[in-house]
Amino acid sequence: MKIKLLTLFSFLLFGFSFAQKDHKFLDPPKLDINDLRKTKSEIKEDAPAEVLYRSIHYNIRKDYEMEISVIDRVKIYNKNKAEDFLNKEISLYEAEGGREEKLSSLKAYTYNLENDKIVPTKVEKDSKFKSTENKHYNIVKFAFPNVKDGSVVEYSYSIFSPFVFEMPKIMIEDDVPIVYTEYVFDTPKELGYSINYQGSVLPKYRVVEEKMLYGFDYRTYRFGYENLKDYLEEKYVKNSNNYRTSVRAELNSTYIGNQFKSYSLSWEDVRKQMMDDEDFGGALKKESVIKDLLPAEIKQIPNETQKAEAILKFVQKNYTWDNKRRANVEDGIKNLIKTKVGNSAEINILLILLLKDAGINANPLVLSTVDRGLIANYMPSITSLNYVIVCIEFNGKLYTLDATSKLSSINVIPPRAVNYNGFLFTNKEAKEINIVNPEKSDTYLQVDAQLEKDATFSGHFTDRDTKVFAMLNSEEYEHDKETYQKDNYKDRYKFPFSNLKSGILNDNEFETSFDFNSDTFVDGVGGKFIFNPLLFLYTKNHDFDQTEERKNPIEFISAYNKNKKVTITIPEGYKFENIPSSKKFKTEDDAIIYSYVVSQEGNKITVESNMLIADSFFPREYYPAFKQIFDAVTKYEGQLVTVVKK
Which helix (H) or strand (E) segment is 150 a member of? Predict the structure, then answer.
């Protein structure tokens, strides 16, 4: 398999000086009645909403505390399609020792136009509530009242924070158009920050300079943007935030009292900090907690790979993930053993302890999950990590395990953890690891059908998945069996079928099957039966239908092979007047291989199509090849069969 490298376009703006001083930052305009009169966006007519004004201001005061001020004003054109703007959450971090972020001056209003006057509706105190996500994060939530099509919603607040080492990544582009947005970062001159800028959209207004602010020598970074189009979501992208334009600041040095101090971390520094943390390194030392937990017959398995698989299955069978993605334990390994439920770190650190107890070299592999975004390996940070999996070593080769999924296996881990890279922490070093599921996943769709003389088809269908595909389908099915079958079969196939069954097979594959009897697949013309031999497995459209130029790479959850096989038996006294032609084609590097093979034996015809995608990642330059190949696939799979009387 050829591995194609992911490249993110980003650069540091630290020390890059230019200015446009004719523009006023931090100067929010008053709400204009014309904003409420607007019936559609001038940037994109069918947009459900648009940002009228957004300002995010990070101001580090001379006492080295930070004030974060946010103003967000959004015009709602279609409230049913703009729900993300109507329910807001503000996250507040709390560290050990009582240091915490504090929310201040939260104000939120819905504005409507009544009798040509602006009428505000305030979000009352009772409508705001606070919840605890985990022991480090508190969430303040609120919803805007009285929202109608045409409303403007606005909120503003300040957060006072002692955490000045690394700021969150701020997304400049949004899913809706933006009339104006700005990012402002002010810091005393003696604090040195790296400003990481990612993406293709450059600010219209830019000020990066040293100047007197708030009565002191400051360094300021100010970026203003106007009339931004909505960010186009593309199919086959794991997390579009990895590619949107964004800004993030990180402290790299201080020069206070003629003393220079560097804060640039290495991943080795991060490893040491986490290993010294009782909730990570401390948990890895809890060997006594798991003493005699592992059955003796598992420890005695002579083959190391089989032993590791058995230990993984032991954890999967006896302990359940609580769906919390964490890089540290919260309630401890002892509590996990007692309650049988724990977060991702607890589940997989237990797995590490058991593997080591059985004499297997196992260590934690820390990472950022797909929904959290990519790790910037050039900006080491504990806060970028939110998940732990297990890495074992046999004969100099590394293998990954993740016991949070009941159907994972060695080197087959849940897609949420397959996010390009992570860091292996041993007692001696931190080592960057490329995280992939090296084995392809398969889908086998098989139909055995009988054509009857009354132009109906009856038969049996099976849909079988392996590896990652089996894991995902099994998890979705176990979460809600009825919804899984409804979404994937009952709503998809509009013909009568019965005996619908889904479940896990003995070899960790997942299968769904049903019987069918339908008259919707055949056209009778002049005494002839005409039909597509793939029956309901044929689709007229495909997902590579983007007309705009591709901006992002093509990302699959796994390399895969999709096989469709349909065998049709026709009645006695009938024959095939014509059958489709076979075809094979591929890319020069064998990254995409397709075949469509038709064979006939007496009164039976078998059509088998096979699509192999050899990698899980392709640069965007491959998109025309995908489009061309899938256009051809649609053409060849659209061929028809004609059956006549002898």
Answer: none
